[in-house]
Design goal:
The chain is an alpha+beta fold. Helix content is 26%, strand content 29%. Strand 2 and strand 3 form a beta hairpin. Helix 7 crosses helix 9 and helix 8 crosses helix 9. The chain starts with a strand and ends with a helix. The mean pLDDT is 96.
């Protein structure tokens, strides 16, 4: 960005500053925002990129005393208490309050673009060793994971510990009551339905936590000859279908607090309770997280009795859409495969397989939070695309 300013002036009795750009466009900045974001060393700690100005010292009705344009590349402001602030043109342009500029900043910071899919999914694949040693491949993996919601990493060693390496490559893994990593295999007296050979219905992991893990990794170390196929479905795509098909069902699932429970012993003993809406939505009513795990849905249901059957009817319709041939994608992991997916968006399941005298199927699992993944993605994006 190399855009200069050709005019600057105060408006509305000094409550706004108007900048006219060389391309003819203009931006308006509230003076309270400009004072709040003064970049001088007294108001801003540049080594930490953090505000020093305490909010109690901010006058929300502040106006400019003087505003001037310096060499078309920055503006200088003098405030009523004689404090002086300077703002660079590029810094201001990025923070313009127009809808277009705000949308561009949202895209740059949060990468909100999503690619929906159903049974026609072309599962993206990247070699594990490439993402471990190449930033471009790492960026491709994480950006695809954010957009599509699922990526298969191939060719990892068939031993425990590969997910720990992957976690270090991102930043760090999420510790839960099942440990930093956990072993999915048939176990006697299983403390989780995943540790059996039975069919696993479509679910997201850990809705019993207030903040469920954002990303899940499953590393195939050993695979059974018959059965054990994995299934995935795009929960956001299906939610959009439900919203169009039955708005009332969507409203019920996005407003009803469902009780979840998980009690047992693993990494340590635990007794976890939580209330979650099956479909979490943002201020626009758009799904931003699916919280659905039939195995850990509690027998306690804290809603009025007359609302119970309508809830079940709504959930039945949603579950039917999840399981329709049109929406679900089936594949079978091979030893050395690591499937990585968005646990807030992609629901996963497993077909049953036969138990034996020894372990015939072994996956190692781990989680990471989206905050950690997005942090790494932003750093890689800046490095790979040479972004400022």
């Amino acid at each position: 960005m190399n855009l200069g300013m050709q005019k600057v002036e105060a408006l509305d009795a000094g409550h706004f500053v108007r900048v006219e750009w060389e391309d003819g466009s203009e931006s308006r900045y509230p003076c309270v925002w400009l004072r709040d974001n003064c970049q001088c060393p007294r108001c801003f700690l540049h080594s930490a990129r953090a505000r020093r100005l305490v909010f109690e010292d901010l006058d929300v009705n502040i106006v400019v005393k003087e505003v001037a344009l310096a060499d078309r590349k920055k503006i200088s402001i003098t405030w009523p208490d004689e404090h002086a602030s300077e703002y660079e043109a590029e810094w201001l342009k990025k923070r313009c309050f127009s809808e277009e500029a705000r949308a561009e900043m949202r895209e740059d910071l949060f990468l909100p673009e999503l690619r929906y899919w159903g049974s026609d999914l072309q599962l993206p694949e990247i070699p594990f060793e490439e993402i471990m040693c190449n930033d471009e491949s790492m960026y491709q993996w994480l950006s695809t994971l954010k957009k599509v919601g699922i990526v298969l990493l191939t060719g990892a060693a068939t031993r425990q510990g590969e997910l720990v390496k992957l976690g270090h490559r991102i930043g760090f893994l999420r510790l839960t009551f099942y440990g930093p990593t956990w072993q999915v295999q048939d176990k006697a007296d299983a403390n989780n339905v995943a540790y059996t050979t039975g069919k696993l219905c479509f679910h997201t992991d850990y809705p019993v936590l207030q903040h469920p893990p954002g990303v899940q990794f499953l590393h195939c170390i050993k695979q059974t000859a018959a059965g054990g196929e994995s299934e995935v479905v795009d929960g956001f795509h299906v939610s959009n279908k439900l919203k169009k098909q039955n708005p009332q069902a969507y409203q019920i699932l996005s407003s009803t607090a469902v009780d979840y429970t998980d009690v047992g012993v693993d990494y340590c003993d635990f007794a976890v309770q939580c209330k979650q809406r099956i479909i979490d939505v943002d201020s626009r009513g758009q799904a931003v997280r699916i919280n659905y795990n039939n195995a850990t849905r509690d027998t306690v249901f804290d809603i009025p009795v007359e609302k119970v059957r309508p809830f079940y009817a709504a959930l039945k319709e949603f579950d039917g859409l999840l399981n329709s041939a049109e929406h679900k994608f089936t594949y079978k992991l091979k030893p050395g495969d690591i499937v990585t997916f968005d646990n807030w968006r992609v629901l996963h399941g497993r077909q049953s397989y036969q138990s034996g005298s020894e372990v015939t199927r072994h996956l190692e699992g781990a989680y990471a939070d989206w905050d950690v993944v997005m942090s790494r993605l932003r750093l890689l994006r800046k490095r790979v695309l040479n972004r400022d």
